[in-house]
Amino acid sequence: MPANTIAVTLESRKNVADLRKTGIHPEHWYPLARSRDIKSGKAIGKSFAGESIVLVRTASGKIFALEDRCAQRQVPLHAGVVNGEQIQCCYHGWVYDSNGSCVNIPYAGKNERIPHSVRSYPCKEAYGLIFVFPGDRNKAEDAFFPHIPAKEDRH
Ligand code: FES
């Protein structure tokens, strides 16, 4: 390789941003896991752009994503147990639904208010992957999502 080509190449590399140091644009869909890695009734924790996210596959096979920290003591929810369509924290047993709402505190009285919730993320499964939208959830529906035609529709 000629010296001037090497110089030009090195010069252009100075302008390439280190992706590890740049922020991501939150208003896109990002694949965080392979579908086959989350069996029914299981949850896994993922770290994405500085956020801890738990991906949950319910007993019926649906997927949802929440911030991976219990509203009570910040314990990672992925260490909890998936019961039916909800996930239960492993520490004191608070139960969250797919919207991130705490729907049960086992030791709370019947009329006790349950004000706590955790953030939920728009989440969808396609092409054998699980995608999460970390930005403003109101923009998720209109955000670009890759369309890969089925094999029989490809030319
Ligand atoms: S830390 Fe989750 S229920 Fe207490």
Describe the structure.
The protein starts with a helix and ends in a 23-residue tail after the last strand. Helix content is about 10%, strand content about 30%. It is mainly beta. The protein contains one helix and eleven strands. Bound molecules: FE2/S2 (inorganic) cluster (FES). FE2/S2 (inorganic) cluster binds near residues 72, 75, 91 and 93.
Which key features would you list for this structure?
4-stranded antiparallel beta sheet; 11 strands; binds FE2/S2 (inorganic) cluster; elongated; 155 residues; Rieske Iron-sulfur Protein
Distance between the termini: 40 Å
In which range does the helix fraction lie?
A: under 10%
CATH superfamily label of the domain at 34-131: Rieske [2Fe-2S] iron-sulphur domain
Mean pLDDT over all positions: 86
> What's the overall geometry?
elongated
Highest-level CATH class of the domain at 34-131: Mainly Beta
Strand order of the largest sheet: 2-3-4-9
Structural class by sheet pairing and helices: mainly beta
| Uncertain stretches | 4-19
- E-strand count: 11
Task: Give the gist of this structure.
This protein is mainly beta. Helices cover 8% and strands 29% of the residues.
SSE layout and pairings?
Blueprint: H1 3-14, E1 30-34, E2 42-48, E3 51-57, E4 63-67, E5 81-83, E6 86-88, E7 95-96, E8 102-104, E9 120-121, E10 123-126, E11 129-132
Antiparallel strand pairs: 1-11, 2-3, 3-4, 4-9, 5-6, 6-7, 7-8, 10-11
Bound molecules: FE2/S2 (inorganic) cluster.
FE2/S2 (inorganic) cluster binds near residues 70, 72, 73, 92 and 93.
